[in-house]
Amino acid sequence: MSSPRVLTIAGSDSSGGAGIEADLKVIAAHGCYGMTAMTALTAQNTSGVKGIHVVPAAFLEKTLEAVVEDIGVDVVKIGMLGHESTIATIVATVKKYKLHRIVLDPVMVSTSGSILLPAAAVAVLCDSLIPLATLITPNVSEARHLLAHYVPAAAFDEFEDIYLNSQTSLINLAKTLHKHTSTAVLLKGGHLPLTDDGLVAARDVDKAMVADVLVLSDETVHVFTSPYIHTANTHGTGCSLSSAIACNLALDQSLPSAVSSARTYVAGAISTSLSLGRGSGPVNHLYSLYRLPYCTGHFFDYLTQHPRVADIWNDYVNHPFVKRIADGTISTTAFKWYLCQDYLFLVQFSRASALLAYKSSTIPQIAVHASGIADITQETGLHVKYCGLFGVTEEELQAAPEAATTTAYTRYVLDVGASGDAAALSVAMASCSLGYQAAAQNRLVDGASKTTARGNQFWSWVEQYSSAEYIAGVKKRRDMLEEMADGFSVNQVAQLVEVFRRVTEMERDFFTAALNQDTED
Ligand SMILES: Cc1ncc(COP(=O)(O)O)c(N)n1
């Protein structure tokens, strides 16, 4: 297997938000293979650059030779250069190895305001490196610095701050820079947010969009606009955009689509940016790599072992109420109360199954949930039989007043079903069926219960919920949930964990309420 190879020639940012550190994360997020040639070390954090240590040109040359001669390079991204001698080395290497796909981010000043390229180096950059680039990606201030190199002071006037007042003037600036450099230009307008009407926004509340202008030739101009994202955390935006463009080129996209996809990627990284440090926090380079925290077929294990759930789940499936059913020490009062309430619970649970069938979209899914109702009918049969033993008729079961715990639990499940989707309802119902199976099976493997099973009038409860038939019914519904879980989003999973926690608490409390009937006698 091979991935497109992307080399970043840039400075290191010790805080990990910009520079080489950002580039490598972006390259990884695009599934490309990243290599580095360090031009400078910066002692840097979110508030500023505390020091710069330029890598000697001879060492940079060795680095470039080492990676280019061995691994090879599909696309080069160039960031902070730091020194004139660095530029000369890169120019020589690019020519020697005929590197021809180069995205050059002419980094001059950091977001925090530190100079990252001495003014004297700008001329060398313009005369020797820019002509070799496929694309340059200046922001407005960098574009003006570059332009100052090409045009006499008088002609430069029209690009003074006061004239840069609209999307149209951004387009003019980009076109003019392209005319002088003869290189494709992506002018980044992120520092000049616009109103809905395309004018530079004077107030924070008017900032509606940002526009980036791509000029490929006098006639070919693309204007990309996107909503302005209100955040103070933008450290690494420029580095990330140019690296993402380099990756997209390495993945064989055309220049306009490479820019368009890279902008979408960066917008995601900004909108999920991290509030780290005291200054402008870093963008979230790796947000697109977030994966579901469980593998196929293990969503339910993930739920029961989740730190917010595990203790509650354990209390539920090893509840003393079930232990006392298994060893025969539960009182008839407590068990009868439980049977009545569980019967009433199952009435609502059948409605929930019907709702789940209604919310499902395929015939096999609907069939599984409809068969769930048939399974519940069988389950209630046991309740009726049991109650008969204790002299309670089915009519009396039906007429029994519903306890507050039962009402709370069942109506919560039905509410999740009414307001949420099939996934949420499945999760709300899973704690009951899977938990009963686990609770019964835990008692089966419990040696003590086996010896007391004979002659224990409650033992058939354990047998029912650990029977092959019950397990097969539960498995069908669990498989369906696992299948759905493959398509969940990360946010959805976090919400489902909360639903599962809530219903598991209510299951536990249901058993506790049953046990408490003894003390209430
Ligand atoms: C090593 C290095 N390279 C580039 C930048 C610019 O990034 P930003 O504009 O986000 O500060 C930086 N701060 N540090």
UniProtKB/TrEMBL annotation:
Q: Which NCBIfam families does the entry link to? A: HMP-P_kinase, salvage_TenA
User: Which superkingdom does the taxonomy of this entry point to?
Assistant: Eukaryota
Pfam families documented for this protein: Phos_pyr_kin, TENA_THI-4
Q: Which PANTHER family match?
A: HYDROXYMETHYLPYRIMIDINE_PHOSPHOMETHYLPYRIMIDINE KINASE THI20-RELATED, PHOSPHOMETHYLPYRIMIDINE KINASE
- Could you tell me which residue ranges the Thiaminase-2/PQQC domain spans? 306-516
**The Pyridoxamine kinase/Phosphomethylpyrimidine kinase domain covers which part of the protein?**
13-284
Q: Which GO terms describe its biological process?
A: thiamine biosynthetic process
The molecular function terms of the Gene Ontology recorded here are: hydroxymethylpyrimidine kinase activity; phosphomethylpyrimidine kinase activity; thiaminase activity
Its name, as the record gives it, is Phosphomethylpyrimidine kinase
* Record organism: Orbilia brochopaga
Q: Name one GO cellular component term.
A: cytosol
Q: Sorted alphabetically, which InterPro entries does this protein's record hold?
A: Haem_Oase-like_multi-hlx (IPR016084), HMP/HMP-P_kinase_dom (IPR004399), PM/HMP-P_kinase-1 (IPR013749), Ribokinase-like (IPR029056), Thiaminase-2/PQQC (IPR004305), Thiaminase_II (IPR027574)
